[in-house]
Design brief:
Length: about 150
């Protein structure tokens, strides 16, 4: 089960020396809990940072949908819920990082701050613990978007 959310493109205007380029990114979001997906989308918003704009969201409720979407390509950042039932985001992250060439950067949502070691085991690029802090979620997504843009 997936749900796509397109954002109307906004003209960012020309890049000037005082104004950095805007990184337009697409985000794939996995959680079996719709309230968690809503919380992540609300925290990141359309602009998680001045220089990062989310132009497309794809919400997935199953690990199969995530794998299928990543195989199709076109995703700049992946957010996985480590607390998802049946297939947790931590194990899924490790699987994706080991199996997908040039896997996009991954943010995992852990159950608590002490689970940072699990995020490291999963090969995640960033981790944010529950309860979700909107500022940390937005900063993590923006940082991963910048990393992906720099690598391209």
């Amino acid at each position: 089960m997936t749900s796509a959310h397109a954002v109307d493109p906004v003209t960012t205007g020309p890049t000037t020396p005082g104004r950095p380029a805007v990184h337009q990114v697409s985000v794939l979001l996995y959680s079996d809990d719709i309230t968690t997906r809503d919380a992540v989308r609300a925290a990141a918003g359309r602009r998680p940072a001045r220089d990062v704009e989310v132009t497309r969201w794809l919400e997935c409720a199953t690990a199969f949908a995530v794998t299928e979407a990543l195989d199709a390509g076109g995703w700049d950042v992946v957010v996985l819920d480590g607390e998802a039932a049946k297939n947790g985001g931590l194990g899924l992250c490790r699987e994706l990082k080991n199996e997908i060439y040039n896997c996009p950067p991954v943010l995992v949502l852990t159950g608590r701050p002490q689970d940072g070691w699990l995020a490291a085991w999963s090969l995640a690029d960033e981790a944010v613990p529950h309860p979700l802090d909107p500022i940390k979620v937005a900063e993590a997504i923006a940082g991963l978007a910048r990393t992906r843009s720099a690598a391209s």
